[in-house]
Amino acid sequence: GDRSGMAQLIQMIKNSKVPIICICNDRQSQKVRSLVQYCLDLRYQRPVKTTIARRAVEIGRMEGMVVEPNAAEAIAESCGNDIRQVLNCLQMWSCKKNKGGDSANMTYKDLKDRKGEINKDEVLRVSMFDACRRIVEGSRGVDGTDLKAVTSSLMKRSDAYFVDYMLMGLMTHQNYLKVCSGQFNKAKLAGDEEEEIAALNEMCNATEAMSDFGVVEENLRGGDQNWALLPLSAMLAVKVGHHAGGPNGGFLPGNAEFAGWLGKNSTRNKKIRLLGELRHHMNYKVSADNAELRMNYLPLMRKQLLGLLFDSEGARAKEAIELMDEYGLDRDDVFENLDEFVLNSGGNKEKKFADLDSKAKAAFTRAYNSMAHKAQALVSEQGAEKTKKKKGGGSETAEGGDLDAIDDDKNAAEQDSDDDDQEDMEALKKKFMKKGKGKAKAKPKAKKSK
């Protein structure tokens, strides 16, 4: 899930001499597809109940139990084809029977009588989408039943919320109106105005319950972090489905949709970040907050730049660059960021800077790179890399302004530092050369004669 995590894992597989086992649940994920090229792809499926039943009968025989095949299939189905849970059930069955002095054999009749004691919790086998369906469809199949069945249905829907309580509220918000629309369309086809009004009232009640859910979620996940409100948020989500489905329960057409709020919120945060960057660049020339910049400045700025670059007589790159420098914008601001703030109305597709001809775009880029841009925001972001050193050791800087004086001082200081370093190196070389000459002049000692 981390950024570049899959690339690092692939690199580890390439370099490692020890086998690495990678396990995944979603084989069709885009991240897994890039990993498969470096792995031996082995696919496993959950075994069917007949296979598990045969193995359970054999294990029971080895442990001194007689397990009927139909009982083994029933227990495998109740456990969701989970082999570990089946073995656990066989162990619990054997222990309880032996303590009571009865036979440890398992028959289909005895299993039906004790199925509730050893059965795996059904909510653990429910996916997030099935849990959402169970919530938004309301109380289905309980019309005309006793209070116990109604209470059981309520608790099942409440437990479905905790399958993934981080996302279940968003999933409910995404899908509950589909159930409401089904109830209204059903009443409209029947031609019953009273039923139509009742369906609209239930939709209003569901929306109010969803609003109450939002208030509780804000206190639950906000600054207070009051997690004691989690059961209340679960019941409010159930209340949304109760009103959406009506007294007899509703129907969700198709599959439950994933929460679209997550994608919308990501886009919103991205545009807020881009708007903040534009405000920072234009802050030395424009005094406005984000809202005023978005509503008043950006549309006019974008229209003016589009007019210059899409001129009928050819792109007027120089004038566009002068306007950009006046307001502290760089090339990425124009060709990438401004296109994010477009409102298309009535199906009219507006021009974008990305639609500019490739030749005109290349000419604009060359013209932009050939000029010096002294906007304060850009200089503070990009630093002294904007200044280019000459071959003779000087520097090219933009003309005028205090920033140029600061850059000259900095370059002079760097030049002085380089000169000092060079002098030190020359002194070290002379010192080592003198030592070498001294060693060369030294004569070897004469050998003693015997």
UniProtKB/TrEMBL annotation:
Residue ranges for the region (Disordered) are: 379-450
Using the record's annotation, list all stretches that form the DNA replication factor RFC1 C-terminal domain: 211-370
Is this entry keyworded Transmembrane helix? no
Basic residues compositional bias, start-end: 430-450
- Example of a GO biological process term: DNA replication
Gene Ontology cellular-component annotations: DNA replication factor C complex; nucleus
The molecular function terms in GO held by this entry are: ATP binding; DNA binding; DNA clamp loader activity
Domain of life, source organism: Eukaryota
Keywords attached to this Swiss-Prot or TrEMBL record, sorted alphabetically, are: DNA replication
**Keyword Transmembrane applies:** no
What is the similarity comment for this entry? Belongs to the activator 1 large subunit family.
List the PANTHER family: CHROMOSOME TRANSMISSION FIDELITY FACTOR 18, REPLICATION FACTOR C SUBUNIT 1
UniProt protein name: DNA replication factor RFC1 C-terminal domain-containing protein
What organism is this sequence from? Answer: Skeletonema marinoi
